[in-house]
Amino acid sequence: MLDNFDRKILTALQTDAGRSTADIAAEVGLSQAPCWRRIQRMEQAGIIKRRVAVLDGEKVGYGTIVFAHVKLSAHGRAHLDEFAESVQRIKQVLECYCLMGDQDFFLKVAVKDIYDYEKLFFEKISQIKGVAEVKSTMALSRIKDTNILPIV
User: Fold this and answer.
1) Are 64 and 125 found together in one domain?
2) Closest of 138, 137, 135, 132 to residue 83, by C-alpha
3) Which intervals hold domain HTH asnC-type (predicted)?
4) Which domain covers residue 31, as residue numbers?
5) 92: which DSSP letter?
6) Most CB atoms closer than 10 Å: which of 9, 50, 107, 115?
């Protein structure tokens, strides 16, 4: 589905989506119009989900990352869906994954500090219907932080 030009365009966009189409076209060896059409096609196909600015959490007041494993008291599609809908409304939850195994969900949460997480935990996360257990771990430092996929 993706040819060599598409792969090069995706790699360029992942590095800096704010660049002009002309700059990207020059880098990948296309003229501007075909490059723009390819980008539009990949956006319409959902390959490119969105173009965003990646912020430095510390500089905007969210310097602490907490990982939370959540176990529900009951299983079944309704409980999983209800939890997922509730988590969507918590802005500090950056990522949420449904898991196989001992835990049901894995959350990546951005907070100001541990006290901010404590408040979020008691006021929101632990109040979600069906939550039986939450095991939280605070990140000490970032070793790798990227959202760039290897396009091969």
Assistant:
1) yes
2) 132
3) 2-63
4) 4-44
5) T
6) 9
pTM, rounded to two decimals: 0.88
| C-beta of residue 11 within 8 angstroms of C-beta of residue 19 | no
Order of strands, edge to edge, in the sheet holding 64-72? 93-98, 105-111, 64-72, 131-138
Question: 23-30, long-range: CB within 8 Å, 24+ apart, which pairs?
Answer: 29/5, 30/5
Nearest residue to 145 (alpha-carbon basis) of 94, 99, 106, 111: 94
Cα gap 85→79, rounded to integer Å: 10
Nearest to 6 by CA among 152, 115, 105: 152
**Which residues have C-beta within 8 Å of that of residue 48, sequence separation ≥ 6?**
10, 13, 39, 42
Query: What gap in Å lies between CA 128 and CA 82, rounded to an integer?
Result: 9
Residues 116, 89: one domain? yes
Q: H/E element holding 68? A: strand 64-72
- C-alpha 95/C-alpha 134 separation (Å) is 16
